[in-house]
Structures are given as C-alpha cells and as structure tokens.
C-alpha cells in the first residue's frame, strides 16, 4: 500500500476549487473512484480521505456508535454532515466546503497547503501548517516514531 506524504501548496480559485496535487492524486486507489471526502478535525486543517478510506471509517463509526448515547449520535451526525464525496474534475480539482474553509482560515483566491499524512491528506492554511519553525523538530519526529535505526 502506498501512503501519502510530502507537502504542496495550490491556489484556490474564485469558485472555491483547488486541485489535489498530482503526486497525491496518483496514489488514489481505483476503489476511491476518483473521489475524496473532507471532514473537520481537531487540528486547524481539513482531513481529506480517499472515498475507499472514508467508507471504511464510516462503517466503523456507524457500527460503533451507541444508539442510546445522545452525544455519540450528535457527534456522528456532525462529522457526517460534512462528509460529502467530491469527484475530482478532469483537472483534479475539488470544491472545498465553505464552512470548513472558514474554520481553517482558507479563502477564495488564497492558497491551500496539502500535506500527505499516510492514509489521508490534511489541508491547511499555509501559515498554520506544521513546520520546523514551530516547536517541532526533525529530531523529535525521528525519536517519536522510533526511526533512529533507519537514519
């Protein structure tokens, strides 16, 4: 299985559309049907899942929600209210959800930073994307994920 990685910044057009970077688009499985699903996250980004990955997450969420638990039902409804499959057009573009754009500080004719994070992609305002200027360091990442033996 190939995983998404890397960062690429793309412009958002006047209709709120942005192109999924071609190197990330190339990693979509045929089962994704050239479609992605965007959902909000606790971080200042939009989580982008290939349709096949979303279907797995959706099934797990539906099966694991306690129907007697009002909070779980409301949280499921909240997430699923944003989860509309977006078929990429011939130029690889998708329309960003206006509420999600506003939540993470993206704007029409602005720029979106795409970061591959394994099975999914995160979309940030470029100023809010994780960077080495933050409290993060490559050394911390190597240590956190036990990659020292590969370096």
What is this structure, in a nutshell?
The chain has helices spanning 22-25, 51-64, 70-82, 98-104, 138-144, and strands at 7-11, 17-19, 35-40, 45-50, 86-87, 93-95, 111-116, 121-124.
Query: What characterizes the major β-sheet?
Result: 6 strands, antiparallel
Strand content: 15-25%
Return the string of H and E elements: EEHEEHHEEHEEH
Number of strands: 8
The N- and C-terminal alpha carbons lie at a distance of 22 Å
Low-confidence stretches: none
**Structure class:** alpha+beta
Multimeric state: single chain
Number of helical segments with 4 or more residues: 5
The coarse silhouette is globular
Estimate the helix proportion, in percent: 25-40%
Strand order of the largest sheet: 1-7-8-4-3-5
Radius of gyration: 16 Å
Taking all residues together, what is the mean pLDDT?
89
Descriptive account of the structure:
This protein has five helices and eight strands; from the N terminus they run E-E-H-E-E-H-H-E-E-H-E-E-H. The longest helix is centred in the middle third of the chain and has 14 residues, at 51-64. The protein is of the alpha+beta class. The strands form two sheets. A six-stranded antiparallel sheet has the order 1-7-8-4-3-5. 30% of the residues lie in helices and 23% in strands. The protein starts with 6 loop residues before the first strand and ends in a 7-residue tail after the last helix. It has helices at 22-25, 51-64, 70-82, 98-104, 138-144; strands at 7-11, 17-19, 35-40, 45-50, 86-87, 93-95, 111-116, 121-124.
